[in-house]
Design a protein that fits this description.
By secondary structure, the chain is α/β, with parallel strands linked by helices. 39% of the residues lie in helices and 17% in strands. It contains twelve helices and eight strands. The protein has helices at 44-50, 77-90, 103-114, 136-143, 145-148, 153-165, 174-181, 186-198, 203-206, 233-241, 257-260, 262-270, and strands spanning 8-12, 15-22, 29-33, 55-60, 97-101, 121-125, 219-224, 246-250. The chain has an eight-stranded mixed β-sheet, with helices on both faces. α1 (44-50) packs parallel to α12, α2 crosses α3 (103-114) and α6 packs across α7 (174-181). The longest helix is centred in the N-terminal third of the chain and has 14 residues, at 77-90.
Length: 271
């Protein structure tokens, strides 16, 4: 577990956030946003590579990874967008480059369009951005989260492992899968897993998707061609909505592009 640790803490409006930075301060800043049900751990290889040229900021959203998980916690897209805005002010970042995956894409878009968060550029990696979203499994759990939360620990662990593993096209290394599943185990983690799904409401992207045409910063959309969570057709639809946006399709990668094709993703980011 010592291969990736977040050493700093910020008290946000939705609870304690664990974060860290890599690279020399003063260099061009980059902020990385993870998705669900993941954490900043999925960015470890990309963050370390980017840190050779940039000052890289990573964080676990409230309710995820090593950040606070607590009963009654607001971990919705609305809350996460506000937390990102708070963090940018805390870090004193005026216009960082932002790279956001999955649920993090919606967080970055909401912060930019609703909270006036300013970015130098925005890269969206298989983002949650357009309706409809949510797999049948995701919708089922969301509608019955109180029931799933009562699963015996062994069944819960098996369910989460199967779900997380399905985000990769070639399959995750067992140690990586263990690390991604670990935050969701135990009494606190199990409750946290179903809490974040229960609060994942499509209305939070409905509120902003008709405003994507207002985006004027450079936007790159990267998408795994083998994504079974959000089909690649959504990539073309999203690019068509954002003026000047570019699309980079990544062959052999599923939804979790950072794990499936980190070198290809890095090439796209540096380009």
């Amino acid at each position: 577990m010592s291969d990736w640790q977040l050493t700093r803490t910020f008290r946000s409006g939705s609870g304690e956030v664990r974060w860290d930075s890599l690279g020399d301060p003063g260099r061009d800043p980059v902020v990385l946003l993870h998705g669900t049900p993941f954490s900043s751990y999925v960015w470890r290889a990309v963050a370390r590579a980017l840190a050779r040229r940039h000052h890289v900021f990573v964080w676990d959203m409230p309710g995820y990874g090593t950040s606070e998980m607590s009963a009654g916690q607001d971990v919705s897209l609305a809350a996460q967008g506000r937390v990102l805005t708070e963090l940018l002010a805390h870090w004193d970042l005026a216009e960082p480059r932002v790279v956001a995956h999955d649920f993090g894409g919606a967080v970055a878009l909401r912060a930019h369009l609703l909270h006036d968060a300013r970015y130098r550029s925005l890269t969206l990696v298989d983002p949650v951005a357009l309706a409809p979203w949510g797999s049948p499994f995701f919708r089922l759990v969301g509608a019955h989260s109180d029931v799933f939360e009562q699963l015996p620990p062994a069944l819960h662990r098996a369910l989460v492992r199967e779900y997380v593993g399905s985000a990769s096209s070639p399959g995750l290394h067992p140690a990586v899968l263990d690390r991604l599943v670990e935050p969701w185990l135990g009494e606190t983690g199990q409750a946290g897993f179903y809490r974040q799904i229960a609060q994942a409401d499509q209305r939070y992207t409905d509120e902003v998707q008709d405003r994507y045409g207002e985006i004027t910063i450079p936007v790159l959309v990267c998408w795994g061609e083998d994504d079974t969570w959000i089909p690649v057709g959504k990539a073309h639809e999203l690019v068509a909505r954002i003026p000047g946006a570019r699309l980079e399709l990544i062959p052999g990668a599923g939804h979790l592009v950072q794990e499936d094709a980190p070198a290809h993703l890095m090439a796209a980011l540096l380009g």
